């Protein structure tokens, strides 16, 4: 939604990008709020998954640590990715002339990439696959985690790392719903 830097009409023109960003302040604030809310929920989900994995895997298993670390990486990327939003949003609201156009251009690239670094969720997905292989979870949850988590992890190590922002959230939603659905079966 905050796409000034990707607008062909403003391409290469930092001042035009800044002017368009000044019209997108509501979208910047919505992005900030949604990203930070997601960050908080990821930390809570990761802590719960970690506790559950500790109970379902061997005491010396690396699976719980890898799973929580993977989602921790995503939460940190979201925290840092949305970290500049308020500074730019409030400056653009007050007076777009307060913002150095080249900085605004960088900012728009920043929020278009950093918060979408969901590659760490791929590590969590692969850890969940390993846990399912040992009987800790249903096999469908393991295979889903292998496919979506594996794809997310592949994006993480590729030059298209921000594409993990497409597959990682899908993995998270599917796994979250699956874990909620099976919670009463324990």
TrEMBL record:
Q: What residues form the membrane-spanning segments?
A: 28-49, 61-86, 106-129, 136-156, 162-180
For this UniProt record, the keywords arranged alphabetically read as follows: Membrane, Transmembrane, Transmembrane helix
This protein's name: DUF4386 domain-containing protein
Q: Which organism is it from?
A: Nocardioides cavernae
